[in-house]
Amino acid sequence: MTASQSQSQSEPGRTAPRSEAGMSVQDSDGRGPSIVALGGGHGLYATLSAARRLSDDVTAVVTVADDGGSSGRLRAELGVIPPGDLRMALAALAAEDADVKTWTTTLQHRFGGTGALAGHTVGNLILAGLTEVLGDTVSALDEVARVLRIRGRVLPMSPIPLAIEADVAGLEADPRVCRTIRGQVAVATTPGQVRRVRLLPPDPPATPDAVAAIERADLVLLGPGSWFTSVIPHALVPDLAAALQNTSARKALILNLAPEPGETAGFSAERHLHVLAQHAPDLRVDDVLVDSDSVPEGRERDHLCRAAARLGATVGYADVARTGTATHHPGKLAAAIDRIASVTPESSHTGREPTSWQ
């Protein structure tokens, strides 16, 4: 996927925030609504590529449990927060000026060969180095964001690297027996069925700036992405979970276009919501955004609506996919998010039976 074409207000396909009457307006500071997007990897990249079309005030809150590839090597060797998902979020929000594009391309460049640098991306090494020089990851991210002329921010969900542990069925002769496996890569690629995930250490701290961003947000977006390893973990960090519960922001959950091989193989859209509710029973969201073609009309949509009701949400259907693919189209996703953002408190479903829209 690519980032949006420009951060300019005159950018084709960019939608300005809407007033209560549905007219396009700018906030008093001209930046647009405050949007916070939570996730990791390619799913978060898709959300950020869409959100930047609606606002210059976008904050990414990124998972920090990756233990594979370049990120896993740097984490093991230096003890740093795994930088890969953070780097991708920076690239998604980077300005489109020609000189900045050179930096963005370089940050995303992965070394080849067979030596010590093989497989590392330049951006991962820069973030690791800046973290050592400046003393903390947030300062390193803010410095790279300055170079990339990012209007918003990229933040780790926790100031320490975390690990994911999962209870997985189907790995033993007795299908009822669960085995505990540890590590994001192991969980994401397991041939078994993930039943529950936990973070290690238990009850980890949240990055204070991430909590503050959620508390002041106008709109919070969760997903899409690897469900057990990129989406659910945000609700398992106590201070982030509390911020999501207490914020006055409108909250939207963006579902994946298709199950992912490994951790959610065979999952229906309804099942995605059930496992989220099992892990975060106190989480409430306002909207669940679903691609129109991913859930056929009829009983499946009825079941999905009932599952969304457990989260207090309305289900919205929209064409948000790149034609013929299982990836989100930034422009289509931006239009769907804008529809959610333009809902006023008076027209919200709050206080009535959750329904669906299309």
UniProtKB/TrEMBL annotation:
Residues 1-33 are annotated as: Disordered. It is found in: Cytoplasm. Residues 1-12 have a biased composition (Polar residues). InterPro entries: CofD, CofD-like_dom_sf, Gluconeogen_factor. Its main location: cytoplasm. Keywords: Cytoplasm. PANTHER family: GLUCONEOGENESIS FACTOR-RELATED (PTHR30135:SF3), UNCHARACTERIZED PROTEIN YVCK-RELATED (PTHR30135). Belongs to the gluconeogenesis factor family. HAMAP family: Gluconeogen_factor. Required for morphogenesis under gluconeogenic growth conditions. This is Putative gluconeogenesis factor. It comes from Rhodococcus olei. The lineage of its organism: Bacteria, Bacillati, Actinomycetota, Actinomycetes, Mycobacteriales.
